[in-house]
Design brief:
Layout lengths: L7 E8 L3 E3 L2 E13 L5 E15 L2 E6 L4 E2 L1 H7 L3 H14 L1
Antiparallel strand pairs: 1-3, 2-3, 3-4, 4-5, 5-6
Length: 96
């Protein structure tokens, strides 16, 4: 061709900043995608929410954005960093 390079899509799974509602903590797992030109400049981006981890006293559970319950292991596979979040909240609840 004539030296034309197609843009590429880079995708990451991230955990959004937590939302605290009373004694409940909500962590949203999102898929972040960026469309980038060959020189690295961003051409566009989009976010897709996938699931939520909800932590409350004595209980933690995951819910898919479709509204279905999902095993805690499934959300931890999507976003392994949530293991640290669970440990942090477990410690906070033990201290208070």
């Amino acid at each position: 061709m004539f030296g034309i390079e197609l843009p590429r899509v880079e995708t990451e799974i991230r955990v959004a900043e937590e939302v605290v509602a009373g004694d409940r903590s909500i962590h949203i797992v999102i898929e972040v995608s960026a469309l980038k030109a060959h020189d690295g400049k961003a051409l566009g981006c989009w976010l897709v929410p996938l699931a939520m981890l909800i932590i409350e006293p004595g209980w933690q559970y995951a819910v898919s954005i479709a509204g279905e319950e999902m095993p805690l292991e499934a959300i931890l596979q999507l976003a392994p960093s949530l293991k640290f979040v669970i440990e942090k909240w477990r410690h906070i609840m033990e201290v208070t």
